[in-house]
Amino acid sequence: PIEKAKLAKDPINAWVDIYEYARKIREGEMTWEEVEKADLDTRLKFVGMLHRNKRTPGQFMMRLKVPNGIVNSDQMRFYADCVEKYGDIGVVDITTRANIQLRGVKIEDAPDIIDGLHARNQTSFQSALDSVRN
Fold first, then answer.
1. Whole-model pTM?
2. Residue 103 has pLDDT above 80, yes or no
3. What is the pLDDT of residues 45-93, one digit of tens each?
């Protein structure tokens, strides 16, 4: 199913789609439940967003790329600020491969996180699917 989803709709365009989905959700034009299943389960992984439907429906784990596992204090504060609004569900994990995972992220907040990562010379691009690992 993953390869079929990638053939049906270019996964790289998920970078544009996540901004559009976020806008529509913020403006009340749609809900996260209306996002295509293939996008929730596959394509958004190219943005680093893994849907955790069984555990936290409508919330995602956002995996970041952290080359060599090196982060600075500004980046760590940014991660904490990103998930603080989610309360107990919002968590920053440091993985065994020295990457960062933000838990509890909602689609409507993803563009702000992505923009903040880019401002700090970081990305979540291909951190969850079809990628080289640390």
1. 0.89
2. yes
3. 889 999 988 888 999 999 998 888 999 999 999 999 999 999 988 999 9
Q: Residue 59 class from Cβ within 10 Å (0-12 exposed, 13-18 middle, 19+ buried)?
A: buried
Backbone angles phi, psi at 86, to 5 degrees: -90, 0
97 or 6, greater pLDDT: 97
The CA distance from 34 to 120, in Å, is 32
CA distance 35 to 60: 13
SS (H, E, C) the chain: CHHHHHHHCCHHHHHHHHHHHHHHHHCCCCCHHHCCHHHHHCHHHHHCEEECCCCCCCCEEEECECHHHCCCHHHHHHHHHHHHCCHHHCEEEECCCCCEEEEEECHHHHHHHHHHHHHCCCECCCCCCCCCCC
* Separation CA 52–CA 62 (nearest Å): 10
